[in-house]
Prior knowledge:
Elements: E1 2-16, E2 19-26, E3 35-38, E4 42-49, E5 57-60, E6 86-92, E7 98-104, E8 114-120, E9 134-143, H1 148-158, E10 167-170, E11 187-190, E12 195-202, E13 208-213, E14 218-223, E15 226-233, E16 235-238, E17 243-249, E18 256-264, E19 276-283, H2 307-314, E20 335-347, E21 359-365, E22 368-370, H3 377-383, E23 416-418, E24 421-424, E25 429-436, E26 445-449, E27 454-461, E28 480-481, E29 483-486, E30 490-497, E31 502-508, H4 511-514, E32 519-524
Parallel strand pairs: 1-4, 3-8, 9-12, 11-19, 20-25, 22-23, 24-32
Antiparallel strand pairs: 1-2, 4-6, 5-7, 7-8, 9-10, 12-17, 13-16, 13-18, 14-15, 14-17, 18-19, 20-21, 25-30, 26-29, 26-31, 27-28, 27-30, 31-32
CU-O-CU linkage binds at residues 58, 60, 73, 103, 105, 241, 448, 450, 505, 507, 509.
Amino acid sequence: xxxxxxxxxxxxxxxxxxxxxxxxxxxxxxxxxxxxxxxxxxxxxxxxxxxxxxxxxxxxxxxxxxxxxxxxxxxxxxxxxxxxxxxxxxxxxxxxxxxxxxxxxxxxxxxxxxxxxxxxxxxxxxxxxxxxxxxxxxxxxxxxxxxxxxxxxxxxxxxxxxxxxxxxxxxxxxxxxxxxxxxxxxxxxxxxxxxxxxxxxxxxxxxxxxxxxxxxxxxxxxxxxxxxxxxxxxxxxxxxxxxxxxxxxxxxxxxxxxxxxxxxxxxxxxxxxxxxxxxxxxxxxxxxxxxxxxxxxxxxxxxxxxxxxxxxxxxxxxxxxxxxxxxxxxxxxxxxxxxxxxxxxxxxxxxxxxxxxxxxxxxxxxxxxxxxxxxxxxxxxxxxxxxxxxxxxxxxxxxxxxxxxxxxxxxxxxxxxxxxxxxxxxxxxxxxxxxxxxxxxxxxxxxxxxxxxxxxxxxxxxxxxxxxxxxxxxxxxxxxxxxxxxxxxxxxxxxxxxxxxxxxxxxxxxxxxxxxxxxxxxxxxxxxxxxxxxxxxxxxxxxx
Length: 544
Ligand code: C2O
């Protein structure tokens, strides 16, 4: 079926934390509207930009078969929609099922321009679990009292880390622990004895989040619109960009219970928002929230730097891998790419930047700090425009060192800035190993790939060993994802078949890393057959 929506981007005043500011919204809503589709549907979204900022929309986790033209990242697959302009995105849901989300993919606009996508099973098919009575989207986000574009500009000007947010939010609300926020606290109504499907999205800019509901367990049934073997836990971890489908059984006495989330931040010295956002699970018949000092307590959430709690959850998840939901992980690989990921402030060569003490923040992959080109890479590739990007993204780190050693010399810390892509042959089996490094401070990075979902076949702490580690890969039921958290001072290996021709962005979903260059681009070449070729550009592409 075809579904059509209109998104009007505009500035709308919103009040949070006792003050009002104008934020970018879609149709005046924050968070933005939830889109409901079935697997196999095609969705058209007409986006009108009535704001003062350039904007694009990305459909995070949708493969967009042969059609990167509708993928959205600015200067990668399109030029942004300028104020007064419009663009129609065509989004085809081929294999995805569960929850994904959409968000702006220009500057930091995704802070308020985002919403969920609920993808139901194809007509005539069912969930791989008993049908829940109802469902609820829970979007975890962040709120700055200041204008977020100012926060970004200030960080770019000073060369330092951006200021942290003032609160995390659940469905746009900081919750009752914050000033002026009690009345707006989000409430999730449930009836005793029933089971609900929670569609949880981490739309925060810069933080992984632990999430839990007091006295209730969550059964995770899907991540990134791919089903997994049910996993029941007291708390979950969700990284920026990720989506989790979880079943909630309302099996406790009729009452109100806290829903809460707070940051997981492993990097020493990396500033983060150490507050807790709350919402309420409200049983029907339990009365309304009125108490000034709640008798109920917050759920247990691990300490902010509890790496074991984080990896313990993430790595217990396995894909469903059954007959209806088979996996298709490449058993052998044609191309292996090892990419170091790191971020730090470094001393600028030749005083080329104005940061404090002549330093500047940079993030990079294989020591290249990505720079947006003047024309989007997709158009430059399609029309053969020279000089827009280079094709020398390296297959391995430029030099080998003990990436996760405690002290690393300054000489390793000066990246090259550039726009380098990596070409992949159509249908080749690709393995990509993200190697975390301990340059200045290691931290966990949520790495996201556009145009694909991939299998996470292995991970570990320390340095990846290309002889030994692949022997321990899970090729039976590895989770299928579009965003993975690479552990601090460790590595993660993913595999996918390059069967989607086009230009595809890959980046860290911490906005403070994306902006500073922890990005790369794959160009998957066309195959021989007609069905293996990039589609021609749609009419009405915005000009640069
Ligand atoms: Cu969630 Cu490049 O995006």
